[in-house]
Write a structure and sequence with these properties.
By secondary structure, the chain is mainly beta. The chain is about 10% helix and about 50% strand. The protein is built from four helices and 25 strands. The strands form six sheets. Strands 1, 3, 6, 7, 8 and 10 form a six-stranded antiparallel beta sheet that branches. The protein has a four-stranded antiparallel beta sheet with strand order 2-9-4-5. Strand 6 (about 90) and strand 7 (about 100-105) form a beta hairpin. The model has no long low-confidence stretch (mean pLDDT about 95).
């Protein structure tokens, strides 16, 4: 096998609000699509507003059939849980020239260059890439958000040639449901029964709560109790994920004064180090840090508060990127261990809810070509 890169787009300007569509006329086997998104901050900075927030959907379609569908947060999390290494994440609040840049892989296999699972667009009639953007999803565009007409996308196809045999399947990820959780009770979600399950990703984000405080338990129930693959506490699943995948480290540029509560990309057990980028006369202190947030205090050497807003860099570290939890159905590298839902008439994924949070569930399945 040999590999090559095929550039589909380079720093293509996306609509501030809209959907980009591109025909995928690639006739070779594609292991992955590598995306980079970047945007420029306004003259007054761009607080708590990540590129991951404004790319609201990434889809591959063939006419009305959806072959792949998620948002950028889910894709970045999927990259991390498939590769055990962080995607490129450079969040920034810095003013005017501050550029935020995120890059990750949409992998059609278990990892990059997987010869057994990959995409062959030649098998479809009219395959297209669709990317939906909204730079005002969190903050209004302009001086304190993203500057208009600065959102750009690059996309590179990672191609495999001279394979011994063409792949017969690719790994398809789709968001199954997005919802706001309640403050108590179970919320059964019906999952598809057509293809095996390799991996699911649950997201449950609310500032100030760990994912295990928003969703306390998870259960997968087949035919109302005939078979239960698992019924677990989320805090235990989160601990297992940390042991398996490790932590993530991010260079996070902020523009803050004393007494700032800062949104983080990691949700659980964050531990950051602030680095002064302006003057050695200012002493930074993190008062507290948990549940996707931290509180920054700044002092002069005489003990008085430093109230001038300035550029800082955090070395952000922790786990549960974007408040996500990976759920493995067997050994992710061994297809024979993946869960087969086809013998059952009803599959329910049931989170036990305890706090109002922004939630979604993504499912990855092997789809025949």
């Amino acid at each position: 096998m040999r590999t090559r890169d095929d550039v589909i787009e380079y720093q293509k300007t996306l609509d501030d609000v809209g959907t980009y569509t591109k025909d995928l006329k690639i006739r070779d086997i594609v292991s992955a699509l590598e995306f980079e998104f970047r945007g420029t901050n306004g003259a007054s900075g761009n607080l708590d507003n990540f590129i991951s927030d404004v790319i609201t959907k990434i889809e591959i379609v063939d006419g009305s059939e959806v072959l792949y569908s998620c948002n950028l947060m889910e894709l970045e999390a999927l990259h991390f849980y498939k590769r055990k290494s962080a995607p490129v994440l450079f969040p920034s609040e810095w003013v005017s020239t501050g550029i935020q840049r995120h890059s990750c892989l949409l992998m059609f296999g278990r990892d990059l260059w997987d010869p057994d699972f990959a995409m062959d667009f030649h098998n479809f009639t009219n395959p297209q890439l669709k990317v939906t953007s909204n730079i005002a999803a969190i903050r209004a565009a302009g001086t304190s958000g993203y500057t208009t007409s600065t959102l750009k996308m690059s996309c590179v196809a990672k191609i495999m040639e001279d394979l011994p045999s063409p792949p017969s399947k690719y790994l398809m990820a789709k968001q199954q449901k997005a919802w706001t959780s309640g403050t108590a009770g179970d919320n059964p979600i019906t999952l598809p029964r057509d293809l095996p399950y390799r991996l699911a990703i649950l997201r449950a984000y609310v500032a100030g709560s760990d994912i295990a405080e928003a969703i306390t338990n998870l259960k997968v129930n087949c035919d109302r109790g005939k078979f239960i693959p698992f019924d677990r506490y989320v805090k235990d699943l989160d601990a297992e994920a940390l042991a398996r995948f490790g932590e993530i480290r991010i260079k996070h540029d902020i523009y803050r004064a004393h007494g700032a509560t800062i949104r983080l990309l990691v949700n659980t057990e964050p531990h950051s180090i602030p680095i002064n980028k302006a003057s050695g006369a200012v002493i930074p202190l993190i008062n507290w840090e948990w549940s996707s947030q931290m509180y920054l205090s700044l002092f002069l050497h005489d003990g008085t508060n430093y109230s001038t807003t300035q550029n800082w860099t955090l070395n952000e570290q922790g786990h549960a990127l974007h408040a996500t939890l990976p759920i493995l159905f067997g050994d992710p590298d061994r297809p024979e261990t993946w869960f087969d839902p086809t013998p059952y008439d009803l599959i329910e994924f049931t989170p036990k809810e305890a706090a109002a949070a922004v939630c979604s569930i993504l499912l990855e399945q092997p789809r025949p070509l």
